Amino acid sequence: MKIARLTELMAAYESALAKHGLSYGTRLNLLARANMIVRAHEYEGAEYLDHVIVANLFCGIEKRFQNEVMTEKSCIKMKREIGRFLHFAKTGGVKLPNPRSGATQTLLPYYGQIATEYLSCDMLPNTKRNARWVTYMYFAWLAEQGHEDLSCVGAEQIQRFLLDCSGKMAVSSIHDVKLHLSKLYKHLYESGLSQSTYAALLSFKVNRESKVRPIMPREEIAKLIDGIDRKTPTGSRNHVIILLGAVLGLRACDVANLKFSDIDWVNGEIKILQSKTSETVCLPLTKDVGEALKDYILNKRPKTAGQHVFVRIHAPHKAFRSAVTVGNIFEDCCKVAGLDYGKQFHILRRSLGTSLVNTGTPVTTVSQILGHTDMDSAKKYIAVDSEHLKLCALPFDGIVPIGGSAL
């Protein structure tokens, strides 16, 4: 193919995938992986395909696998899907997925039309992918059970479908099925295709396994912040970004989307609509964060009319395209400080939550500070409160081991 900008290549790639008859879900997956190349180049300020940047991207993926941040299966899949885009960029041809692994259910026209209308709603890419998976699986199952439309489908069919899923899926998958089935029925009810949302039926709780993830010790957070050269435009910007994660606990996506209108300088507050929960959270603009923001905005930020606080240092000075850029910045700052946490910007949020619990802050307050909509989301920080967990340990006095005497 002729040399073209990455944005043009992505548009051509999307068109080529559609022409080959790949399903919407498959195209969405392939484009999401290919978009990692675009984001990596945007971070470096490159508009054309650069093989050095691509090589570094592959090294980063491999490193995440070696550090057990991702599974071997995910690592292989990510490399393969990126390779498909590189093949297209070089030859203009599309490497089609294996028909067996890439196949999806074929729906009856009646169900296909409903699915298309439902999935046309405004959703984030990952949400839409999961919604499509559940919708297609449920409608295909109904067809197999002899239901060619929804006229005779009700609570009994929903229960049977969930029971069938429970026999062959992991608990985390059951959680996703229930969640998106609930959203689907809300749409069906509002469209007049169902007599009920079945909210009560689908209100049961699925207890998923919750891993105790690591946190960053305070001394390492201090080392991370001290290692940033705040005299440069890049360092000033990165310093603010790290503080927003470590001091206020903002998610990477909310840092990337932060706008000037979110900052209330008069009342000393930052008020944002959280990307993950769509809930508004209001946080105090602490002195250290406020001073860092002021220095960056007034003295170091590139002159641009954009309303996003954080923009690319190199022209064109556009806003960050996604949270991945924030993760890349975190990784770069960690490298300078001699730390190895990959792109886990979220570890700053976890560390703040754990620190608050350690200092005796009630879980309800921690939940409000971090903007959780579910109290259980904040309870996980108790699991890494090692000092207070020691108080819960029971003594072994009086316990007689097998074949021994009392301790």
* Unreliable residue stretches: 98-103, 382-394
Mean pLDDT: 81
How many DSSP H or I helices? 18
Portion in strands:
under 5%
Structure description:
It is a single chain. This protein is mainly α and 407 residues long. The protein has 3 domains: 97 residues; 82 residues, DNA polymerase, domain 1, CATH 1.10.150; 171 residues, hpI Integrase, Chain A. The protein is built from 18 helices and 3 strands. The chain has a 3-stranded antiparallel beta sheet with strand order 1-2-3. Strand 1 and strand 2 form a beta hairpin. Helix 6 runs antiparallel to helix 7. The protein is globular. The chain starts with 5 loop residues before the first helix and ends in a 17-residue tail after the last helix. About 5% of the residues have low confidence.
Concise summary:
By secondary structure, this protein is mainly α. It is 55% helix and 3% strand. It has a 3-stranded antiparallel sheet with strand order 1-2-3.
